[in-house]
Amino acid sequence: MQKEHHCRCPWLDTSKEDYVAYHDQEWGVPLYDDHRLFEFITLESAQAGLSWYTILKKRDGYRSAFKNFVVEEVAKMTEDDVERLMQFEGIIRNRAKIAATINNARRFIEIQKEFGSFSNYQWQFVGGKPLVNDLDKLADYPAITEASTAFAKDLKKRGFKFLGPTTVYAHMQACGMVNDHSNDCFRKAEIISEYE
């Protein structure tokens, strides 16, 4: 369902239907479900150094490579799985990133045990509710923030890989910890009205 008359964020390539669907349905919507959060964190860590759209197009590949993002299953994966996935064209074949996903799954479970859920842990970095930013044009978008730096630092301390402050900020944007839809984007107010 395309709403072509709507204004959208300046970063979005509206010629790509799947990208528009992601922007309209998922990006910036507050997410509290650990299963989805693990998916988002896995995709963001895979994206490091690449375009988000590259990863978005391979999302189904990542689903099949990483057990539909069931964190307990991914945590059990072995070096043999890493070797196998190095031959799998459905994902970015970067050994360090594949190994990082398995490592991150194990660390994710540790956080779940400590905080009751990964969601509880993650949302503490924004005081439990979405931060709404004032963005008019592309130049207004920050790449990192104090919150993403603190979040990334804590993840690193806990042993996560490929989740630096910029990648973590992209994760925060994607799962609605920050509402970074531009002021004229139709989704900005829609999302706010859903949680207020």
Automatic annotation (TrEMBL):
Pfam families: Adenine_glyco
Annotated InterPro entries: Adenine_glyco, DNA-3mA_glycosylase, DNA_glycosylase
Protein's recorded name: DNA-3-methyladenine glycosylase I
